[in-house]
Amino acid sequence: MKYPRLALSLLTVSLLAACSSAPSTDGQSGAAVEDRSSASASGVDANRVVPVDANAAAGAGIAALKDPKNILSKRSVLFDYDSYVITDQYRPLVEAHAKFLVANPKMKMLIQGNTDERGSREYNLALGQKRADAVKKALTLLGVSEAQVESVSLGEEKPSCNDASEACWSANRRGDMLYSGEF
């Protein structure tokens, strides 16, 4: 009886050894893996930062925030339906606000995430928070101190438009950036 047990044990060990794998030492990793780092999750490519005119963003001062000719007067990042990814269209706006905040470290910003009226209250609050957090993450990746930025969700509670149309719904899917004294 000793030999059948020994044979069975050896067979089990050899099968386990055959099934195990060692890491590749040839410098290649197996299958490609999708990049889900914080930079790609927020929609910002940290390697592709478009330079923003320093005078328009950082050096313009507080008056630039209210000057309609300055990019800093624009405060809303619009999002696609059911999405919290910052599109290429709004990256220069986020970059300009990041440069301004880096140059003015005492300024604070509140980002309010908003949604359209479709979806449940709980879903819209969660999506609004993800949108606000995406803008916050983009700003911090561009050098803004985490202590300068706060993100909150308003869900569907603060619409900028009340019509039941796609144009109105798209205007409500936004992240609003408010500076100290505006909230």
Question: Would you kindly provide a brief summary of this structure?
Answer:
With 183 residues, the chain is α+β, with helices and mostly antiparallel strands. The chain has 6 helices and 4 strands.
Would you mind describing this structure in some detail?
The protein is an alpha+beta fold and 183 residues long. It has a domain at 71-183: 2-Layer Sandwich (60s Ribosomal Protein L30, Chain: A), CATH 3.30.1330. The protein is 37% helix and 12% strand. The protein has six helices and four strands, in the order H-H-H-E-H-E-H-E-H-E. It has helices at 2-19, 38-41, 54-57, 91-103, 121-141, 166-172, and strands spanning 76-78, 109-114, 149-155, 174-179. The protein has a four-stranded mixed sheet with strand order 1-4-2-3. Mean pLDDT is 80; it is low at 18-59.
CATH topology of the domain at 71-183: 60s Ribosomal Protein L30, Chain: A
Count of runs of 4 or more consecutive helical residues:
6
Q: Mean pLDDT, rounded to whole units?
A: 80
- From the N-terminal CA to the C-terminal CA, the straight-line distance is 82 Å
Which structural class do the helices and strands define? alpha+beta
SSE layout and pairing:
Elements (H helix, E strand, L loop, with lengths): L1 H18 L18 H4 L12 H4 L18 E3 L12 H13 L5 E6 L6 H21 L7 E7 L10 H7 L1 E6 L4
Parallel strand pairs: 2-3
Antiparallel strand pairs: 1-4, 2-4
Features:
alpha+beta, 4-stranded mixed β-sheet, 183 residues
